[in-house]
Specification:
The chain is about 0% helix and about 45% strand. It has about 500 residues and is mainly beta. It folds into two domains: about 25-405, YVTN repeat-like/Quinoprotein amine dehydrogenase (Methylamine Dehydrogenase, Chain H, 7 Propeller), CATH 2.130.10.10; about 420-490, Immunoglobulin-like (Sandwich). β37 and β38 form a beta hairpin.
Length: about 500
């Protein structure tokens, strides 16, 4: 939601280049449960500036279809940053796209991806429009960081709060676009990303803050195959705060299906369908001071014409919830000062209005100072959709953090024809072995920057024990006889 432009920000300016396991409830300075910190890039690097008016905001991701490399796209107050995270332990800041010339720095930038392009809007930024960036420019950047250029900027809008894209149909939905006579949703055809075309809109229910748009494949047979927009229309603690369901299949004639309300609204913010389209789960951004702990609302939308409040989940902290997403039976929430919360919703059917079956199964608290109910600090967004399982958190203060479920960072399988290495991960010592018929001459151990940490020569043995108890936790490369290198994790 809209906030004052002056914030007191708890700044953590740190860039980490090695895995920091979650151990004893902490990953370095960050409280955690079952999620390790792989690396981070600080806000100053991403934004190219620092200070109380600079924050990180939205993030999204892109997977290159040519080689499967993963990239994080990070919004900041000043610009959009692009990071190669194909090696999540050593991310590379490739460069940035400056905000539209003549627009102002802003707290609200939102990004979505379609057809190898990023589409970027900004709120309260003047004549920013919608930037279109060709993500294939991220391939083969030889001397990062660089300044990128947009393919085009769609100027049919000025400032927009948010953007949703239905990747199945190629339409974008710009919402909260002040100054163009439509604060609801504006429909944009992205068939040609370099030439976005306005094809209609929906404004019958006032201001839309966020939306999800899908091609429906759920239990309500009347709408199968239809394009459905679910809009979160937050206006701030009144009966006008509601969730709107709209059939947008015909862009020239969108039809409202229904609306849903709930008790004690603060600011209807954002929501996401479960994979079976039976439930729509919603976060309210400002209700915590009056409600207590973080509240997440679940609507049964088996009948899209009659959405019903199914259950309410209360989290373990008082922090304010922001964006949420669902993969399978897992709900990922960015809850500002309490960071990323991971919630098991597998027993959702057995929840009721008086009983909730959700269970928090993990978290990574990117803002360790407190869990207060404020929108001024902490995790803005969490992107959990990378095939690798790596998750990117955009934290207003810390910048970008890459995390991963504990125990899932793989190490190469031993090649018995070269050498074996065990235990791995290790804490005290690690043993290197080759066949009894062979001999090891040299062993070197380096960090991921290529700096040699330990080296041994003239060994002439089939096995050797490397003392690792003095090494910092993280990931190293072990090379035998200047040949094959393997990854070693020190925990």
């Amino acid at each position: 939601m809209r906030r004052l432009l002056v914030l007191l920000i708890f700044s953590i300016a740190v860039t980490l280049n090695a895995q920091t396991p979650c151990s004893g409830g902490l990953a370095g300075i960050y409280p955690c449960n079952d999620y390790d910190l792989l690396s981070s890039i600080d806000l100053n690097t991403l934004a190219g500036a620092s200070g109380g008016s600079i924050i990180a905001n939205d993030n999204w991701g892109w997977v290159d279809p040519l080689d499967g490399k993963e990239y994080a796209i990070m919004g900041t107050s000043t610009r959009t940053a692009f990071v190669d995270i194909s090696d999540p332990l050593n991310p590379v800041f490739l460069g940035h796209l400056q905000r539209t010339s003549g627009s102002s720095a802003n707290f609200w930038r939102d990004i979505k991806v379609y057809n190898n392009h990023a589409f970027i809007v900004a709120d309260n930024a003047g004549a920013h429009g919608m930037q279109v960036f060709d993500l294939t420019n991220l391939r083969n950047v030889t001397n990062p960081p660089v300044t990128f250029t947009a393919v085009t900027t769609y100027t049919g809008v000025n400032s927009c709060h948010n953007i949703a894209i239905n990747e199945g149909t190629g339409y974008a939905y710009l919402v909260g676009c002040g100054g163009v006579g439509n604060n609801g949703a504006i429909f944009i055809d992205l068939t040609d990303p370099a030439n976005p075309i306005d094809v209609g809109g929906y404004n019958a229910d006032g201001y839309t803050h966020d939306a999800q748009v899908i091609t429906y494949a759920g239990p309500d047979i009347a709408y199968i195959g239809r394009e459905i927009m679910v809009a979160s229309n937050g206006v701030g603690g009144s009966s006008d705060d509601k969730i709107i369901f709209v059939n947008v299949s015909d862009k020239a004639n969108p039809i409202k299906i229904s609306e849903a309300t709930y008790p004690l609204p603060g600011y209807a913010h954002q929501g996401w369908f479960t994979p079976d389209f039976r439930y729509f789960i919603v976060g309210d951004e400002t209700d915590e001071p009056s409600i207590g702990n973080t509240r997440t609302l679940v609507f049964d939308v088996t009948d899209l014409d009659n959405p019903v409040l199914h259950t309410t989940y209360f989290g373990p902290t008082t922090s304010t919830d922001h964006n949420l997403y669902i993969i399978g039976d897992t709900l990922y929430e960015a809850n500002y000062t309490s960071g990323m919360r991971v919630i098991d919703i597998s027993d959702i059917d057995n929840s009721t209005t008086t009983t909730n079956t959700f269970t928090e199964v993990g978290y990574f608290d990117s803002f360790p100072a407190n869990d207060n109910a404020t929108t001024s600090n902490g995790a803005w967004n969490v992107y959990p959709f990378f095939p690798s399982g790596n998750i990117v958190i955009s934290d207003q203060d810390a910048g970008m953090l890459i995390v991963r479920k504990s125990g899932t960072l793989s190490t190469p399988k031993f090649d018995r024809n070269s050498f074996s290495m065990y235990p791995n991960p290790a804490s005290e010592n690690v043993t290197i072995e080759v066949s009894q018929t062979k001999r090891i001459n040299t062993i070197s151990l380096s960090n991921l920057l290529g700096q040699t940490i330990l080296s041994f020569d003239k060994l002439e043995s089939s096995s050797f024990v490397i003392p690792t108890n003095t090494l910092a936790k993280g990931v190293y490369l072990v090379k035998v006889d200047n040949a094959l290198a393997k990854k070693l994790v020190i925990d």
